Amino acid sequence: MTGAPAAGAGGVDAEQSVASAINRAAGGRPIPGNKVDLLIDGPAAYDAMLETIAGATRWIHFENYIIRADSAGKRFADLLARRALEGVHVRVLYDGLGSFATPRSFWRSLRKAGVEVRAFRPLSALDLVPNFSRNHRKLVVADGSRAVIGGLCIGCEWTGEEARDLAPWRDTAVQVAGPAAAVLDQAFGRTWELAGGRLPDEDVAGRVAPQGDAEVRVIRGEPGRERTYRVIELLAAGSINRLWITDAYLVAPPRLFQALRDSARDGVDVRLLVPGSSDLPLVRNLSRIGYRDLLRSGVRIFEWDGPMLHAKTLVADGRWSRVGSSNLNPSSLLGNWELDVLVEDVALADAMERQFRLDVARSREVIRRPARGPHRLSAALPTVLSRGSPEVVGLEHQPTGRERRRRAALALRALISNARRSIFLPLSAMLVSLGALFFALPTITAYGFGILCGWLAISAWREAFRRRVDR
């Protein structure tokens, strides 16, 4: 083809430049020699996690944002406790906010069995800034040679047990065997140290033998680093044929949305799979306000019709696959500790694309259509968003009452994050209410405002002092 680079130095240099850019954004070079298997939904992922824990001979590192004390959580706790009693070094790291509702007795029983348990940043009334940066990672590593990483927390939401009206959530993870598991273990070591722990030298992986042909980049997301953010931007900018993204809480920053729009305008097949919204038509339609710019650019958007969609994945050009804990929203991309893998492997990308097609077959595409009415009037009005029919008829999931409530919360969250009017209207209402309080109850409101200012002042002083010490 005229003008296309030959399969020579120019083409190789361009490919190396893209790879180098991704390496810098991800914070590390690709790690060769890995076997990576795709895990779909809770039952398969949990079986792989439990198998990894059961097969450990030296140590187990278990890190998750939410670890519940329900039957699913107790299944993990029982096995972890048993392995600790058998002499395996077991460490569990949970997030102080995500696992806030888990009773202390759950952790005490693990400690009693010899498990080292730590909380990542327990909530503090005075250290306000750290409260907003959470450890959102989901990881299990055994002996630094085998790992499971993905978007699944530990709870019955992912298995559908303990409640008749609870359907298993749709989620994705990968099982990694090989040298990349050792790097994932090092990522655990970093957050373990932040929580006040220290890994002894005998529990740090050395050389791990190759297990397969996949190259894996470990993306260790930390507050302010924007590693996953920049990697996805580069994949969006460099995609040639297709870019398919599944995300549970898509509230992408404007820069990332622009990258998706630019790719679609350039002819890339950009598709987004997101959770279906509430069955309430008003909430459903309001949640779609942010879709219009994407649709105009040629991005295709699908709303999942099954139970809660919690996966965070990307597959690009049948070559790159990204799986992990990062949602495409500011809290994940900018503020949290997250953990993802970018896998360069055609077999895994093919499996990811097959799963994406299966998911899309159970979803409804969001489309634009003219508003109903006289031609001149409908032409002057904004287009109306509606959903098409799923490709596979008869598989539509009938959401339970619990799922309707969750979907309504998701829809409202998307609405608040994406629509200008839904930012400024609540702000206006809040200011009006606050002003009314000052007029109606001036003394009480003034005392309350004074206490709030004092609380924030103490928190700001502690934060300034803490950062001085850190330096």
Can you give a write-up of this model?
A 16-stranded mixed beta sheet has the order 4-3-2-5-6-7-1-8-14-13-12-9-10-11-15-16, with helices on both faces. Mean pLDDT is 84; it is low at 1-8, 278-287 and 410-423. It has 2 domains: 18-364, Endonuclease, Chain A; 422-470. Helix 7 runs parallel beside helix 8 and helix 15 crosses helix 16. Helix 3 (71-85) links the parallel strand 2 (59-64) and strand 3. It has 471 residues and is an alpha+beta fold. 45% of the residues lie in helices and 20% in strands. It has helices spanning 9-26, 41-55, 71-85, 104-112, 128-131, 179-194, 227-238, 254-265, 281-286, 291-297, 330-335, 346-361, 375-380, 401-418, 420-440, 442-470; strands at residues 31-40, 59-64, 89-95, 116-120, 138-142, 146-150, 172-177, 214-221, 242-246, 269-275, 300-304, 313-316, 320-324, 338-344, 363-369, 384-387. The protein contains 16 helices and 16 strands.
Secondary structure category = alpha+beta
According to CATH, the fold-level topology of the largest domain is Endonuclease, Chain A
Instruction: Classify the helix fraction into a percent range.
Output: 40-55%
Indicate how many domains the architecture comprises: 2
Strand arrangement in the largest pleated sheet: 4-3-2-5-6-7-1-8-14-13-12-9-10-11-15-16
Question: How many helical stretches?
Answer: 16
Largest beta-sheet characterization: 16 strands, mixed
Q: Could you tell me the radius of gyration in angstroms?
A: 24 Å
**Number of beta-strand segments:** 16
Query: Low-confidence parts lasting 5 or more residues at pLDDT below 50?
Result: 1-8, 278-287, 410-423
The percentage of residues in β strands lies in 15-25%
Overall CATH class of the largest domain: Alpha Beta
* Overall geometry: globular
Assembly form of the protein: single chain
Q: Write out the CATH superfamily name of the largest domain.
A: Endonuclease Chain A
Question: What is the first-to-last residue Cα distance?
Answer: 56 Å
- What is the averaged pLDDT score? 84
Q: From the 3D coordinates, which CATH architecture of the largest domain would you assign?
A: 2-Layer Sandwich
